[in-house]
């Protein structure tokens, strides 16, 4: 019985299953995560953003070209068009008032127009911190809301940042459904919200689709929203199915049960490139490098890593180009710093660190590390050049990279000791309480032009006194960097801001607070007959532009 | 017959594990050094079973993986056998309230949903109770410790039942009458006579531990890289199972053979 | 009988209490919580947000206080809310339990059916016994996720006969197709025990004098086997089934993950990993309860079937 199974295994790679031709009014999408909640403002997770992208319209969003655009509003506020005005706050600080006007044709699924009242309610709920909305910084800064007319609302902020036109996660909530539930008791609102108790209520959804069925843990089904006045989407129904094991996800795709796999929550890159090589005729794979910065955080409080020369040697000893070309089919963009080359503030001229083992060795010699009898370097005191190299246990792609880096470092006389922990332990304790001594491989996910204050400012180094807040896990301190991080957000002039960003990147490349690896790419798997899906490469999901999707 | 077949299987695997350095010498490459130019290489004279997702020789990794997997299996089984026998003997010998408490504890363990509890234990932060985190040897110790928590129950129940019947025999009474010490009675008369059932339970525990290690690896809670175990080889191969099926087939077969070998030995001993 | 039942029930209650506390401690010992993870995944969340959200969810309370609050609520029949899914725990567990029981029922029926058939075959035709043994040993020796992947590749991807996983969208008979592979994966690992126990028991029974008598009366071999020998083999098989039931309710995690079927194993895993103590504890305790009740039921049934045990 076994030998036959094994023989058939080999055939499996040659004969694709007969694809039943699916009825093209339904699109079935596989993702690897199930959204724990459908409430737009509570808990941020990729699966939720992806599902809500079909069924809700935020006010503003960064589009596929990484420019801020209006989605639920009709004009992007700016100082030039007068919808944003500088002013002074009551306590005498520079402030700004910004007015957003909702699109005229935006309606909830029960036919009621989306109104300024819905935005006012969302602001009130967010402003009351016991409601439990995430990302309170926006609500803290927006100290007053004024309903101008049924479609317009003005917020007054006590801070002027270049992102003033962005409404962020502040989106209309259907006040006629939710307000009463919230007013009853804000603290337990989350569990009584209609988004949790009756997610199929049409009044919750104002996008091209609405939720019609929820199978906890397994999937969510969406159907065309009759009250949607924008361009009609191509599919009557969209079924989103959760399959957490990527092996199983690929199997369901090959068996014809799934039409596509969303790149935001899809196959690891090497699995996708292997899929493309085998069955490229059935599927189209779109690779989109994104704002996911894979890097090694190194602890600057460890004496050997505090030496800039050692950090530079660590980068030059790794053949990152080789890793990307061999392990990831050349699909990821090498990182020379923390700013993505696709971001408009990226500086082409920043210092790059090529693979250069000779210079790496020379720098280590200079820093006092000389080869020992077993090939591992030692300093004058006889200490071995050993670095603890950690990452998230169970992430196969990172564990593979980690072993390759270990081998490359060894060539330069650096010993890496691998010690991995489950994500909960690594992020919940080892990183956030700075209990690592060497290097940790993980990724930062960000929005376009987001200022890396929490990861680089010396005030953001987690300590017990500060209740371990902050994400500057490396312990990097640089006075000029601190000044830049404070200046960039409040510089409204693009060209002046670009100059500041260039300086920030120059310091980063020279000082190497962390070892840059690459920007991760998402692999989107689409059927050959589907057109028009454009991944964004940042936090906004491609599903927000579902009305552009078409059957070829 | 079964005993011989099972022992032969296990012996073969153990010889492979012990002979890994010799095979490495003969083939002349390092199974722990990645080679990015050789990923998923086909079988060839230099790589009899091909290479894995990082270009390392599959045969050598299987052999070195056998060391870890068999070590986990044997260490768990031995720990379970020692602990289980001790508890079983204690219960049978002292009887009364102690017996009741120990056996209710065993019943409770049997009722526990093992896998979820294993997951909790494997994900718990061992650093907090002073165990080192992450290193290969401490990984093995951690997994052995976790699996032993469940492994002792079966042995203890068998040991207690067998010991009770031995303690009731005439020659034990005779020995007591002759003034033999209790320790001597247990060691000289009881233990040798209950060795059979304990051996059966131990053989089955080896099989269970090897399977459990592969399950924990599937969940990302097993032996950490770059050490090879059959479980983590299998789990690392699963993403690319459609394009490189052999990297998953071999470690799976190795587990199958080892577990079948242990089961055959247990069956053989039982007859 | 009644006294025995009462004693066992008390024992079950004590076990549950100890278990709940041990699990609570263990889950509490695990560092980090979803809020830490949320911060790592969302650049817009600040450390102040984290402290605020943690306080909101009661995660900043000491462990013992949380246990006391939880256990007190449970005794009053309040299972509490799942923090991970923002829904009453009972509402989340009920569908998962149903789904798992369906999977489990299928697996027990299939494993029992095939296992007993193989056992009878081995007992009736001793020459076939080694082959039956080989099948049983190979089945229980394969790592379950490996076996599952092989089945998926063969039947779903290569042959295209069956779905590779997930749940039926139309329901009814169609959902049976979705059950075949996961049920088979679970059953193959478990049929060995049934085959061996039934073979051993029937083998013993066939040597009894009254079987010879039945044969002498001119009963056919098949009739002897099914009508006379088999009922006597039912007792050990029943016990195996009871033990299996418990292991499978919590242990279907791998099968549920691989075949993307929500169920108790997956739910407990997610709850534990997400530090959702309410959900994890209620689900774990429920599984332990099902296991212990199944064992108890098997013991009682055994007494009913086997008169010799009644006085013991």
Structure summarized in a few sentences:
The complex is a heterotrimer of chains A (552), B (271) and C (312). Chain A has 552 residues and is an alpha+beta fold. Helix content of chain A is 30%, strand content 21%.
Question: What would your notes on this structure say?
Answer:
The complex is a heterotrimer of chains A (552), B (271) and C (312). In chain A, 30% of the residues lie in helices and 21% in strands. With 552 residues, chain A is of the alpha+beta class. Chain A folds into 3 domains: 19-34 and 194-289 and 522-551, Periplasmic binding protein-like II (D-Maltodextrin-Binding Protein, domain 2), CATH 3.40.190.10; 62-186, Dipeptide-binding Protein, Domain 1 (Dipeptide-binding Protein, domain 1, Alpha-Beta Complex); 290-521, Roll (Dipeptide-binding Protein, domain 3), CATH 3.10.105.10. Chain A has a 6-stranded mixed beta sheet with strand order 13-19-12-18-16-17, sandwiched between helices. In chain A, strands 8-9-10-1-11 form a 5-stranded mixed beta sheet, with helices on one face. A 4-stranded antiparallel beta sheet of chain A has the order 4-5-7-6. In chain A, strand 14 and strand 15 form a beta hairpin. In chain A, helix 3 runs parallel beside helix 5, helix 11 runs antiparallel to helix 13 (357-366) and helix 17 runs antiparallel to helix 18. With 271 residues, chain B is mostly helical. Chain B contains 10 helices and no strands. Chain C is mainly alpha-helical. Chain C has 13 helices and 2 strands, in the order ααααββααααααααα. In chain C, strands 1-2 form a two-stranded antiparallel ribbon. The longest helix of chain C has 36 residues, at 89-124. Chain C is globular. Chain C starts with a helix and ends in a 7-residue tail after the last helix. The relative contact order of chain C is 0.14. Chains in contact: A-B, A-C, B-C. Chain B binds chain C through residues 104, 107-108, 110-117, 119-121, 123-125, 128, 207, 211, 214-215, 218-219, 231, 234, 238, 241-242, 245, 248, 252, 255-257, 259-260, 263-264, 267, and chain C through 11-12, 14-15, 18-19, 23, 26-27, 29-31, 133, 137-138, 140-146, 149-150, 153, 157, 243, 246-247, 249-251, 253-254, 265, 268-269, 272-273, 284, 287-288, 291-292, 295.
């Amino acid at each position: 019985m076994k030998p036959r199974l094994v023989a058939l295994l080999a055939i499996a790679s040659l004969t694709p299953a007969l694809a039943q031709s699916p009825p093209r009014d339904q699109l079935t999408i596989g993702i690897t995560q199930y959204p724990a909640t459908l409430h737009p403002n509570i808990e941020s997770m990729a699966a939720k953003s992806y599902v809500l992208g079909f069924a809700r319209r935020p006010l503003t969003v960064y589009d596929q070209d990484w420019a801020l655009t209006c989605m639920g509003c009709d004009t992007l506020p700016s100082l030039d068009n007068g919808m944003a005005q500088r002013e002074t706050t009551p306590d005498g600080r520079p402030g700004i008032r910004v007015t957003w006007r909702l699109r005229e044709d935006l309606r909830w699924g029960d036919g009621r127009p989306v109104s300024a009242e819905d935005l006012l309610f969302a602001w009130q709920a967010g402003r009351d911190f016991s409601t439990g909305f995430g990302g309170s910084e926006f609500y803290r800064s927006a100290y007053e809301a004024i309903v101008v007319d049924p479609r317009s609302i003005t917020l007054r902020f006590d801070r002027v940042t270049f992102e003033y036109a962005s409404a962020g996660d502040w989106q209309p909530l259907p006040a006629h459904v939710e307000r009463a539930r919230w007013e009853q008791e804000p603290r337990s609102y989350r569990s009584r919200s209609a988004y949790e108790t009756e997610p199929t209520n049409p009044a919750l959804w104002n996008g091209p689709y609405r939720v019609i069925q929820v199978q906890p843990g397994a999937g969510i089904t969406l159907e065309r929203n009759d009250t949607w006045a924008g361009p009609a989407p191509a599919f009557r129904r969209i079924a989103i199915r959760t399959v957490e094991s990527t092996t199983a996800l690929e199997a369901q795709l090959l068996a014809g049960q799934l039409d596509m796999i969303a790149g935001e929550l899809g196959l690891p890159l090497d699995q996708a490139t292997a899929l493309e090589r085998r069955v490229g005729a059935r599927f189209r794979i779109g690779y989109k490098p994104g704002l996911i910065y894979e890097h090694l955080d190194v602890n600057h409080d460890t004496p050997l890593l505090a030496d800039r020369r050692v950090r530079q040697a660590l980068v030059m000893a790794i053949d990152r180009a080789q890793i990307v070309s061999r392990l990831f089919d050349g699909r990821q963009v090498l990182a020379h710093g923390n700013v993505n080359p696709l971001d408009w503030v990226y500086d082409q001229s920043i210092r790059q660190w090529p693979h250069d083992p000779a210079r790496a060795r020379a720098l280590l010699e200079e820093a006092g590390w000389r080869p020992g009898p077993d090939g591992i370097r030692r300093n004058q005191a006889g200490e071995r050049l050993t670095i603890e190299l950690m990452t998230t246990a169970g992430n196969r792609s990172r564990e593979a990279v980690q072993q390759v880096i270990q081998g490359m470092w060894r060539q330069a006389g650096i010993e890496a000791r691998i010690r991995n922990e489950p994500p909960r332990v690594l992020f919940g304790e080892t990183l956030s309480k700075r209990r690592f001594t060497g290097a940790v491989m993980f990724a930062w996910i960000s929005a376009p032009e987001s200022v890396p204050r929490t990861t680089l400012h010396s005030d953001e180094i987690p300590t017990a006194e500060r209740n371990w807040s902050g994400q500057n896990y490396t312990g990097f301190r640089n006075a000029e960097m601190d000044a830049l991080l404070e200046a960039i957000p409040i510089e409204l002039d693009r060209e002046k801001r670009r100059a500041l960003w260039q300086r920030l990147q120059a310091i980063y490349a020279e000082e190497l607070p962390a070892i840059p690896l690459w920007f991760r790419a998402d692999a989107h798997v689409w059927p050959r007959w589907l057109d028009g899906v454009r991944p964004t490469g940042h936090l906004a999901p491609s599903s927000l532009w579902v009305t552009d999707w078409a059957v070829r | 017959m079964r005993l011989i077949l099972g022992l032969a299987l296990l012996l073969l695997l153990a010889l492979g594990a012990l002979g890994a350095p010799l095979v490495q010498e003969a083939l002349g490459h390092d199974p722990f050094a990645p080679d990015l130019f050789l990923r998923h290489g086909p079988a060839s004279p230099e790589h009899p079973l091909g290479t894995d997702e990082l270009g390392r020789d599959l045969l050598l990794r299987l052999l070195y993986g056998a060391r870890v997997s068999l070590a986990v299996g044997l260490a768990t089984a031995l720990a379970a056998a020692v602990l289980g026998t001790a508890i079983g003997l204690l219960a049978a010998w002292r009887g009364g309230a102690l017996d009741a408490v120990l056996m209710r504890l065993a019943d409770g363990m049997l009722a526990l949903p093992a896998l979820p509890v294993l997951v909790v234990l494997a994900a718990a932060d061992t650093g907090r109770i002073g165990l080192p985190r992450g290193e290969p040897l401490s990984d093995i110790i951690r997994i052995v410790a976790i699996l032993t928590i469940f492994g002792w129950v079966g042995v203890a129940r068998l040991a207690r039942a067998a010991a009770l019947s031995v303690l009731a025999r005439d020659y034990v009474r005779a020995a007591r009458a002759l003034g033999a010490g209790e320790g001597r009675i247990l060691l000289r008369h009881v233990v040798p006579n209950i060795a059979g059932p304990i051996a059966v339970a131990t053989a089955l525990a080896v099989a269970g531990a090897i399977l459990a290690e592969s399950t924990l690896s599937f969940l990302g809670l097993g032996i950490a890289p770059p050490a090879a175990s059959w479980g983590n080889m299998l789990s690392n191969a699963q993403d690319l199972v459609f394009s490189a099926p052999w990297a998953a087939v071999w470690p799976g077969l190795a587990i199958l053979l080892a577990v079948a070998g242990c089961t055959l030995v247990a069956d053989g001993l039982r007859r | 009988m009644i006294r025995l039942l009462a004693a066992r029930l008390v024992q079950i209650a004590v076990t549950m209490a100890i278990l709940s506390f041990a699990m609570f401690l263990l889950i509490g010992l695990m560092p980090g919580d979803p809020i830490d993870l949320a911060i790592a995944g969302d650049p817009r969340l600040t450390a102040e947000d984290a402290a605020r959200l943690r306080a909101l969810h009661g995660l900043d309370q000491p462990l013992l206080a949380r246990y006391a609050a939880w256990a007190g609520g449970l005794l009053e029949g309040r299972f509490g809310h799942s923090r991970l899914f923002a829904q009453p725990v009972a509402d989340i567990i009920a569908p998962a339990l149903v789904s798992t029981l369906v999977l489990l029922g299928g697996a027990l029926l299939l494993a029992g059916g095939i296992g007993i058939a193989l056992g009878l075959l081995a007992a009736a035709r001793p020459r076939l016994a080694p082959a039956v043994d080989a099948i049983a040993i190979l089945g229980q020796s394969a790592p379950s996720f490996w076996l599952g992947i092989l089945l998926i590749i063969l039947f779903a991807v290569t042959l295209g006969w069956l779905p590779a996983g997930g749940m039926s969208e139309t329901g009814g008979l169609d959902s049976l197709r979705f059950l075949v592979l996961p049920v088979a994966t679970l059953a193959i690992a478990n049929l060995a025990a049934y085959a061996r126990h039934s073979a051993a028991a029937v083998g013993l029974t066939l040597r009894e004098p009254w079987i010879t008598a039945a044969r002498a009366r001119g009963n056919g071999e098949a009739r002897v086997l099914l009508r006379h020998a088999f009922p006597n083999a039912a007792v050990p098989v029943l016990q195996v089934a009871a033990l299996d039931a418990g292991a499978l309710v919590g242990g279907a995690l791998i099968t549920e993950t691989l075949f993307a079927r929500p169920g108790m194993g997956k739910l407990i895993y997610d709850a534990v990993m997400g530090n959702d103590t309410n959900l994890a504890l209620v689900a774990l305790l429920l599984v332990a309860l099902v296991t212990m009740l199944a064992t108890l039921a098997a013991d009682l049934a055994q007494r009913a079937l086997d008169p010799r045990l009644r006085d013991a």
